[in-house]
Amino acid sequence: LPDCRILITSPSFNQLTRVFYAELVKWYRRMPEQIQEKFRITRERVDYKATKKFNQFASLVTASVENKESLQGGHADNYVIFADEASGVSEEAFDILLGTLSTGKGGRFIQVSNPVRSSGRFFQVFQNDDNKWSKLHFSAHDSPNVNKEWIEEMRETYGEDSDLYR
Q1: Cα separation values, 121 from 31, 102, 118, Å
Q2: What pLDDT digit, counting tens, does each position of 85-103 carry?
């Protein structure tokens, strides 16, 4: 898409670099070489080099209120915010991020997280019955990446009715 920018964020620098960036690099290295050549990846940015006509990139920025200025000003016709571990993004940082979607045609805010908090904007999105957000739920039981013995250990440790198990 022309004029497409992505802000990849997480509530902590450690989560963004140690976890997200490591996964990004892992999957990048698994791509065929002819696809790898189209991207340049650093700890702060992913550039799409395949087109000279459009400036398309993703920036990795920590979602903290101390980092307000870095969260603002990322307007584009097709602007995407991807928040990893979104339940930990503070309400103030969330509101700043939401404000960046005020311009453009195709703004999206994708939040990915485990429901580990009973407060905050991520929690509120899943508590409201409105249609402002598309909500997807995935169970560890259905994931090929989750060890079934671990699920059973969590059930035994916390009980089926506990939020930690659910």
Answers
A1: 35, 18, 10
A2: 999 998 888 888 888 887 7
